[in-house]
Amino acid sequence: MYRLSRLRFIFPIGLFLALFLDGSLSNLWAKLYFAYPYSMVSELVILWLVLSYFFEQDISIPLIPFSIAAGVVFDLYSSGILGLNIFLFPLIVELTKVLSRYFSPSFLTIIMIFFVDIVVLMTLTYWAYSLVGITSMGIGDFLLFSLTPTLALNLVYFVIFYWPVSVLYQHALNDQRV
């Protein structure tokens, strides 16, 4: 059904825009996002993947392959090497699928699931970087100076983008049925 849907164009374009905006906003507002000692990480790609899962309705978007591709592009663009996001983006999609089984979709449950996704993504990234010695930040500093500002930024993104993405998906899906 995905092949016949307008989402076959809208979803990849939105994913590309999310990838582009993640890097561009981080560069444009670097002084705000990375003001010592705080650091905020823009996770628009995760937001797009999570909202797409909830808004796809009966269209099955192949989110796992797209999330792997987004992880490859994100890693190569941000660091020049393949890294964690190749594995973490699909893991977050799967986590979203598992959590959504226990809750009926509404604004509050979707924001809660997105919140959990960001916490898991950031915590696994922190843990992996601590394990290999890339960071020596303590867990308290991570929670206070990195995770909390990242959650605040991405929850603002969620509130801003939830309704426009919802309307975009409704428009694409309603025009498909006519």
TrEMBL record:
Any one GO CC term of the record: plasma membrane
Top-level lineage group: Bacteria
Membrane topology: Multi-pass membrane protein
Chief location of this protein within or outside the cell: membrane
Entry's Gene Ontology BP terms: regulation of cell shape
Record keywords, A-Z: Cell membrane, Cell shape, Membrane, Transmembrane, Transmembrane helix
Segments traversing the membrane: 36-55, 67-93, 105-129, 141-163
Subcellular location: Cell membrane
Pfam families: MreD (PF04093)
UniProt-listed InterPro entries: Cell_shape_determining_MreD
NCBIfam families: shape_MreD
Sequence similarity: Belongs to the MreD family.
Protein name: Rod shape-determining protein MreD
